[in-house]
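Side project, low priority. Logging it here so it doesn't get lost.
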Amino acid sequence: MPSSRPPLERMIRIHQSIAAGDYPNATQLAQEFEVSTKSIYRDIEFMRDRMGLPIEFDRVKNGYYYTENVENFPAIQMTEGEFFALLVAEKALQQYRGTNFEKPLMSAFKKMASALPDTISLHVTDWEKAISFRLKQVPIIDLEIFEAVASAVANKKQIEIQYKKPGAVAPETRIINPYHLTNINGEWFLFAFDLNRNDIRTFAPARILSVKETGIIFERNRKFSPEKILRDSFGIHSGSENYYIRVRFDRKVADYIRERKWHESQELTDLPDGSVELKLRLSSLVEIQRWLLSWGSNVKVLEPAELAQNIKTEAEKIARLYK
């Protein structure tokens, strides 16, 4: 027997039938949706009492009707601008096509779209043609492993993983309590309590070769906070230091720096010659160093001296490669 439609979709169809002047009754609707008449009565009651729709029953025509004009189904009230933002979000989620997130996300999006006023829905096709996302650096992740990790996080299940660090000859066996999955700049990371290290560690799901449940259910440490861990990091790597970063970008790239918010702590100062000074407070130099090197000679480190020396040493190594 085919599965019945979800209540919201069913109520939208009931509304459409009543608004069209079809005078549907509970028996007809129950047959159409393959549910009991009690379900239809509950839907009608909800639409009348909770949504405020002016539904009455016409005994002569043996069906339901609206006592006054109803233009839109009230389940979702959304402006065109809000729907545009929703569409942008849906487009951004296209990087997760093929994952276990795809079906529920698309289903939810279609349900919301079907409940919108016609004046908004008419523009969906035009918007589809106007927006796109191109992600050229999508991490390669084994979907079965990712789903197993996500399930372990959600259900607080301890897992044993085979994990291969970059440059390592062979993978390591790690037993972890997976706490939290986060996506930073398009890349997934896992925060977990590593029983071997007796501390919170960060793992990249793309480097996990296998996952096996240990049968143990764990409790997350109440003091664990991904927001606190990432607050002073430039990406995913956090440290225990407190670095005051001050760098200057020349006028050729200054506008690119002004166009984005690179970190919560950032302070930008425009200089007379068109350059811009960027100040940050970070707990580690690892990721900021890589980022600064990507700007080549268009950036100069002013503080701290340690970072300036690291950049200089790396630049000298690069120069030697091209002699």
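Brief comment: Residues 243-321 form a domain with the Alpha-Beta Plaits fold (CATH 3.30.70).
Revisit when time allows.
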